[in-house]
Design brief:
Elements: H1 15-19, H2 21-34, E1 68-74, E2 80-81, E3 84-88, H3 89-98, E4 101-108, H4 111-123, E5 132-136, H5 137-146, H6 158-163, E6 181-192, H7 194-197, E7 217-220, H8 223-233, H9 243-258, E8 262-266, H10 270-276, E9 281-285, H11 286-292, E10 300-302, E11 308-316, H12 324-333, H13 337-346, H14 356-363, H15 365-368, E12 383-384, H16 391-405
Length: 408
């Protein structure tokens, strides 16, 4: 089967910010034409007065909006304002509606590294400094299991309750979605430059010496992505990870390093190496390649023959957060379909919100048919989540994978 070819920003401006403006303008026109219906809160509270800008009617909040909100997220996960690429459009709209200034920082590059920055205050029962954090499903499960996450007051979140898509419900680590709200989903597969490597469709390339890509291959520092893809390459099942499977995957990655195939093991900074040509074949997150392709058009993202790792990043409110009620209002704001469409038009991941594809069908048909935003049903079997590990097994996997990173 032919694989689909798909169309990180630094803190400085990039072309992606300007190219996203066309799709965002279509969403803005749609909002101006029809407005966004927002479910009323079941418990009325003070109603914010919009100060111009947003076309979404604010939900009458049970919580009193705070003056500020602190949000930690990954890079390239929020829409920029097409009229001012130094601003985030959705956050500006929220501030206009509720009066809250959002201190939004693209500070997360890896789940474990970020966990290390919040572990001590959470363990001590202190405010970690963030009102919303965005972490991958397995880390969300871990934080919930540790009791370090606030329970949602869903009276502040009627749009979240009404509009979260069915596939995101019922996970055993938070079956009633009282502690987590999916932010975006994505895939980890093959990112590469076919002008350097030629066509690649199999994960076997990561472990096969070849003069075209020797020394230009990079693995991800996210253990579940790197081990998961390697398990797929070996014919193992990442949905049921075992210590024996971990050992086999780590051995294969160590051999690839010893054979001179692998250049480095990196977090999201791998995109810079692709741009510079220092890397030509990487374990990649789908949205990164879509966006980096705008800076280097020869890049492609491929769903490998063996499948991709499928994951979801989730919004959590850390225990002791100073502005819990406002965090709930912010999450709910992003679950208004029209607001989510505005976000999704500026990024390149899979939305957890109902109604977005229908909005795109009317405003941006090319986005509605994008297989990386809305994977077709025939690809479902190739979207493979990594199984949840016990604390003991997770420690074992991390210890073994540290050898691949070079710190074990």
């Amino acid at each position: 089967m032919d694989q689909p070819e798909v169309s990180l920003i630094d803190t400085e401006l990039s072309r992606r910010r300007f190219l996203a403006a066309g799709a965002l303008a279509g969403i803005s026109a749609f909002l101006a034409a029809c407005g966004a219906a927002v479910s009323p809160s079941p418990t009325a509270g003070p109603t914010p007065t919009p100060s111009g800008g947003p076309n979404v009617t604010p939900t009458p909040p049970r919580a009193t909006p705070s003056a500020e909100l602190n949000w930690a997220n990954w890079c390239c996960y929020m829409d920029v304002d097409p009229n001012d690429p130094t601003k985030w459009k959705t956050l500006e709209d929220f501030q206009a509606a509720y009066g809250t200034k959002v201190n939004y920082q693209e500070i997360i590059e890896g789940n474990d590294d970020f966990f290390g920055t919040i572990k001590d205050p959470l363990q001590a029962g202190l405010d970690p400094g963030w009102d919303i954090v965005v972490v991958t499903d397995w880390m969300a499960a871990r934080l919930i299991r540790l009791g370090w996450v606030e329970e949602f007051d869903q009276a502040n979140m009627p749009n979240f309750v009404a509009n979260v898509r069915e596939p995101y419900k019922g996970f055993d680590w938070d079956p009633d979605m009282r502690f987590h709200a999916p932010w975006q989903s994505g895939m980890t597969g093959i990112g590469y430059d076919p002008e350097v490597t030629g066509p690649i469709t199999s994960l076997a390339a990561f472990f096969t010496p070849d003069p075209r890509w020797n020394g230009k291959v990079e693995f991800l520092t996210e253990m579940r992505d790197a081990v998961g893809l390697t398990m797929l390459a070996l014919g193992l099942d990442p949905t049921k990870p075992t210590r024996e499977g971990c050992d086999q995957a780590v051995a294969a990655m160590l051999k690839a390093r010893a054979d001179g195939i692998v250049r480095d093991v990196k977090g999201q900074s791998y995109v810079e190496d692709l741009k510079l040509g220092d890397a030509a074949l990487v374990m990649a997150w789908s949205g990164d390649i879509v966006q980096t392709k705008l800076d280097k058009p020869t890049l492609e993202f491929v769903i490998p023959d063996e499948g991709v790792m499928f994951w979801t990043d989730n919004c959590l409110i850390p225990k002791g957060a100073a502005h819990k009620g406002t965090a709930e209002l912010m999450i709910d704001w992003c679950y208004v379909p029209e607001q989510q469409a505005q976000i999704e038009a500026g990024i390149s991941y899979i939305t957890p919100v109902e109604g977005v594809q229908e909005i795109f069908q009317a405003t941006a048909p090319e986005l509605a048919s994008d297989p990386l935003r809305f994977p077709p049903a025939d690809q479902a079997a190739r979207l493979i989540p990594f199984g949840i590990l016990s604390e003991e097994d997770a420690a074992y996997f991390d210890e073994q994978f540290a050898k691949v990173i070079g710190v074990g």
